[in-house]
DNA sequence: TGGTATCATTCATAAAAAGTGATACCAGAG
DNA sequence: CTCTGGTATCACTTTTTATGAATGATACCA
């Protein structure tokens, strides 16, 4: 039962005749006759009673007419919804490093939600490497990551700049144990680079899935970790913060998304908001 | 946006790929590819993001998917409703002479409604001639009329037999004024026939649209009228009832409907109920 | 690194559906 | 009776949908 068939059905039902319906449909009368017959074949029931002059709905026809109206209306709605979703609505999946999610994103997300209350924003966290892969696979619409990506199918917007510091418990600053995220974290690479550079070798690494786990273990004196200064300053407890040289410490984060991702209005808003943050927040 | 197009859209969305969808749809991939493309052209928006392996819904695609499910379900419903209306549901329009509507029909209608609570019964009244025409034109599904009709496209079921009597105010029995329905009433023909036969000429006729009007005017002494005995006996007020010879008085009513009217279950019930009343209620 | 399997797309073409125009047919009106 | 206003039927064209084979891209595996 195709939508177009229902349209001719409605035309005949409303005009009470094949010829008048044909006129309204801008087609020829024989075509209308044929399509009605096909529809009747399909539902196995006569939809009209042929009168000497015109046709009149049968009981079954009246039933179908009701439904046909609804169906047609729904089709219109669907069409509308899809166009509208370019403007608003729909959903966006955004990934971010856990640290970014904690510090930078909340205010931005708030603003976004005010501007697009109908757009569903689904947040997830992951390591830089994981998220880059997900963006490339369209499992994420966009992501906040800690390194650039050399792939010209990807748009990258500078998001913010931050300074990494080493965090440990007092007296534990020279630990050879590094507590970090699982492989793929942008910060982890920096930390390892630093330890290698200052020759604190060999060092061992403990991997964690969440930031909470890392911080908990650092405060228990298990070792040291690397965190954005913003995050480190807000830690509760007694920690020592050790500066790092700029080339290690300063990391630029980017909001990335695939070029092929549809640029809906909400998506544009998101990128725009990201750009507004694009001030060197840290020297 | 045809239903069939949405079916392939859903298949692709659910299986996450053209090939798997094609398999499910029992057709070749190239066809699925083409139809998806056509749908995308139609809505002017990419519905899927092409990944290296398979396809994934875009934000707009997700929106459409929701609607597609609803639409498909609605279509199923419509199809079902039409078949079901053969069994039950739907509507039947029944016409009857006002006198029949008052006396014989109520109990029958009640039974009918108990058996088919989902069938809408629309009642109307009219003269025999009017209703015969309406049945022939399918403006009525069936009707209770006071004469047979010589048209072999029409089914006629004996409904009941009744006795007509003349009704007047006491002392007004020989009035030359006949109060009757508008032209086309089966009883009116009988009354005129009677007056002619007994030579009460000339007589004049006042036409009315409703039985109430007739009765009111009769009781005001304007003239006499002809009514079924059953009805006459139940009139409130002081009336004289005059018998008529059998050939004038006894009238058979019939439930008629066109042969071409679909014999739905409810319709069959109606005819069956009519036949149960088919007892000579009056000698 | 090359080989193989898995997908999507493209293209030429076949089959089916929708649309056309002419004509036949039917019933009511004059 | 013919005329008129309508539907149905028919042979035909156009459009849409479906097919099969070829192409290309990418992942997976050795």
Provide an overview of this structure.
Two copies of one chain form a homodimer. The first copy, chain A, has twelve helices and eleven strands. Chain A starts with a helix and ends in a 7-residue tail after the last helix. In chain A, 47% of the residues lie in helices and 22% in strands. With 283 residues, the first copy, chain A, is α/β, with parallel strands linked by helices. In chain A, strands 3, 4, 5, 6, 9, 10 and 11 form a seven-stranded mixed β-sheet that branches. A two-stranded antiparallel sheet of chain A has the order 1-2. Chain A has a two-stranded parallel sheet with strand order 7-8. In chain A, strand 1 (48-50) and strand 2 form a beta hairpin. Chain A has three domains: 3-87, Winged helix-like DNA-binding domain superfamily/Winged helix DNA-binding domain (Arc Repressor Mutant, subunit A, Orthogonal Bundle), CATH 1.10.10; 92-161 and 251-276, D-Maltodextrin-Binding Protein, domain 2; 162-250, D-Maltodextrin-Binding Protein, domain 2 (3-Layer(aba) Sandwich), CATH 3.40.190.10. At the A-B interface, helix 4 of A face helix 4 of B.
């Amino acid at each position: 039962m195709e939508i177009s068939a229902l349209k001719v059905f409605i035309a005949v039902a409303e005009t009470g005749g094949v010829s008048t319906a044909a006129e309204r449909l801008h087609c020829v009368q024989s075509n209308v006759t044929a399509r009605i017959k096909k529809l009747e074949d399909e539902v196995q029931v006569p939809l009209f009673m042929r009168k000497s002059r015109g046709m009149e709905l049968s009981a079954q026809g009246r039933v179908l007419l009701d439904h046909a109206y609804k169906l047609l209306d729904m089709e219109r709605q669907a069409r509308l919804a899809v166009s509208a979703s370019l403007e608003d609505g729909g959903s966006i999946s955004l990934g971010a490093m856990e640290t970014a999610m904690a510090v930078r994103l909340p205010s931005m997300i708030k603003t976004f939600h005010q501007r697009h209350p109908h757009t569903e924003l689904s947040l997830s966290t992951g390591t830089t490497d994981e998220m880059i892969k997900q963006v490339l696979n369209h499992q994420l619409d966009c992501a906040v990551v800690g390194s650039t990506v050399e792939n010209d199918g990807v748009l990258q917007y500078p998001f913010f700049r931050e300074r990494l510091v080493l965090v440990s418990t007092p007296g534990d600053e020279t630990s050879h144990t590094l507590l970090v995220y699982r492989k793929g974290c942008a910060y982890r690479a920096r930390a390892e680079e630093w330890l290698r550079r200052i020759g604190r070798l060999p060092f061992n690494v403990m991997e964690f899935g969440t930031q909470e786990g890392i911080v908990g273990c650092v405060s228990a004196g298990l070792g040291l970790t690397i965190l954005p200064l913003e995050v480190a300053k807000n830690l509760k407890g007694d920690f020592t913060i050790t500066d790092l040289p700029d080339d290690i410490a300063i990391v630029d984060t980017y909001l990335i998304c695939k070029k092929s991702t549809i640029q809906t209005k909400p998506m544009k808003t998101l990128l725009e908001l990201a750009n507004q943050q694009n001030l060197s927040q840290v020297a």
